[in-house]
Each structure stands twice: as C-alpha cells, then as structure tokens.
Amino acid sequence: MRGLFRRTPATPANPATDASALGTTALALRMHAGAVVPAGCVGVVFDKGGRTRRAAQGERLALLEHESAFCFHPGPYSIDIMPFASAPELGLHLAFAIDAPDPRVPQQRFDLFLASEAEAAVTLSAIGAAIESTLQRELAQGNLELAPCTSLDEWNAFRAGLNQLLYTRFGLTVDDCVPVDLGDTVDYAQMLLARVHEPVQATRPGQKMAPAPVDAALADRHALRRLFLELPGVTCALRLACLPPGQLQFGQRQALLQRLDQVALSVATMPALTLAAPGQSLPTAQVQARARHAISAAAALDEAWSMVARLADAAHVDDADRIVANLEHHCAGRRRSAPEGGDA
C-alpha cells in the first residue's frame, strides 16, 4: 500500500520540448501523441508524404502510424538581421507573425515548412538566421534592392518584395520593418577571428580548393526530404501564377512545368546514398560528392521559392530556366555512380 502513495520524482523539463518557450524563444516545438495543444497555439499533424492537418488549442493530438506533430505560436515576434554581410553594423528590425489560415489553398506554407525542414524545434534564432541568409542572397543577386540612400518609393518597393519573399518562403507575415544601427552589438574582433579559424583543406598548387567534408547521411536526408515535399508546391505555385503580359508565355511555362515534374520524379526514385548498385557500395569520396549535389539542389530549391515570390514583378524567363537547370544538374549528380566528370 505504501507504494501507491509514493511521490513520483519530478522529471526535469527538456528545453527542446518545453511548451513555455512557445511564443518567446521558439516558434514551434515537436509534440508527442496524446499531448494537448497549449492555449494560444496551433497544432500541425503531418505524415511522411507531407500531408498536413491543423488542430485547435486545447485539442488532444491523436496521431496515426507514421504521423508526427508540431505546435506553433503565431507570435508576434521580432528580430534584428543584417541585410549585408560586409556591413554588419547596418541592420533591419523585423516584426513578423505566422500567417493566418488561407482558405484558398489546401496547405498553409508554414505547415509545409514544418513538415519539410523542422527538426525538434524551430527557435527564433534559427528562423532569424534563415531569414537573414535568404535576404542576403536576394540582395546579392539583385532580386531586391536596398540602396544606401533609399528614397521612399525604393523603400516601399523593397518592403513589398521582402513581404512577399518571407510569405512565400516561410509562411511569415511581416508587420513592420525599420532600419537599425547594430554597431553597438557587433563584435568585429570575434567576426574576424571566426573567419581566420574557418577550416580550409589544403590542395596542391594549381588545383581548385577542395570542398569541405559534410555529414553526408544527415545532409543528404534533409535535402532530399525538402526536395520531395516542396517541389510539388513550387510546381503548383508556378502553374497557378497569374502573370502580366510579356512574361512567361504559355509554351515556356509548360516546358518549365514538365522539367520540374521530371525533377520531382527523379527525386522520388533517387538511389540510396551509399550504393552504386544493389550490394555494391560507393567509395567515400563519391558518397560525399552525392551529398554535396543534394545540398546544392536544396539551395536551388530556395532560389525557386524566391522566383515564385517575384513572378508578378518582372520578366524572369532566363532566371527560371537557370534555376530549373541547376535543379536538373544537381539531381542528376546525386544519382551519378561514377566519379565526377566520368560516365554514370
């Protein structure tokens, strides 16, 4: 009888699954079956195929086999980001929230982001780093413009592009964006020290710099999951986009859609990372090369989302062709069993 009334020791809280972090330091946390969606939060349940459904606050999560769940707090959140890596003292203060449900689409963009990219948690610092990286790439490529002496019209154009970019890429709605001076918070000495200690692989004179090794299995799995789940979303967005006159013609759009379908088929039938054939293993160098192609294909996927975000602004026929060509090239490289430059 004494055992019936014995006090059970309290289990220490796990920061990765502590629901109190939602809405402050974390946007979303992975939840287990039977958990109750916290107040003010939204549950997202998804299966291996990326199909999602939402659960309201207070609802107990009932998961079927092969299903996982996240809970997210819609915000609002605020972060400081550096739009230019070469000028870390110039910053932007962003206030954003997770998009409200759009009844016109079968799947919310943030739900897809959770299903394809989230691990145990989506922290505010992690999403800030992803936003910063995405914005820096768009500014470097000239897809967005933020001149030092920006006029009001130029600033409004930048804001419109940024709003559409973050909504299309992450499912986030920007509430406010203002320039800030980050000079007091930037440690220049630490930044230079980090650059000095970046790992560099030595090569013989005349050779190209050898790529740094990666955790092949983890990087490959993450990249292929993104490609498998997100390529249909990119294809659907391109198919449904209403383009102004003079943009992609019908035949050009159909050709791009057919190529994207072929890339998606290639991803769905991708061979195992470490096998050249059944029972035949690949050398380590070729496994690393395959993983790097998968990472590069995921980077091209990010550019595809950015292209979708700016379809209505200007003609992007050549840009769209380049992005799809990169996807085709790197997916073919991921399938390749022969050494780089050899016959597959």
Structural summary, described in words:
The chain has about 350 residues and is an alpha+beta fold. The chain has 3 domains: about 20-70; about 75-180; about 215-335, no CATH class. It is about 40% helix and about 15% strand. The chain has helices at about 110-115, 125-140, 150-170, 190-195, 215-240, 250-270, 285-310, 315-335, and strands spanning about 25-30, 40-45, 50-55, 65-70, 75-80, 90-100, 120-125, 170-180, 275, 280. Strands 3-2-4-1-7 form a 5-stranded antiparallel β-sheet. The longest helix is centred in the last third of the chain and has 26 residues, at about 285-310. The termini are far apart.
Summary keywords:
alpha+beta; three-stranded antiparallel beta sheet; single chain; 3 domains; 8 helices; disordered N terminus; five-stranded antiparallel beta sheet; 344 residues
Architecture blueprint of SSEs:
Elements: E1 26-31, E2 42-47, E3 52-55, E4 67-72, E5 77-81, E6 90-98, H1 109-117, E7 121-123, H2 124-141, H3 152-170, E8 172-181, H4 188-196, H5 216-240, H6 250-268, E9 275-277, E10 280-281, H7 284-309, H8 317-335
Antiparallel strand pairs: 1-4, 1-7, 2-3, 2-4, 5-6, 6-8, 9-10
Helix pairs in contact: 1-5, 3-7, 5-6, 5-7, 6-8, 7-8
Number of domains: 3
Q: Estimate percent helicity.
A: 40-55%
Largest sheet: 5 strands, antiparallel
* Residue windows where pLDDT falls under 50 for at least 5 positions: 1-16, 201-210
User: What structural class do you assign from the helix and strand content?
Assistant: alpha+beta
Order of helices and strands: EEEEEEHEHHEHHHEEHH
Distance between the termini: 71 Å
Q: Total number of β-strand segments?
A: 10
| Rg, nearest Å | 23 Å
Oligomer: single chain
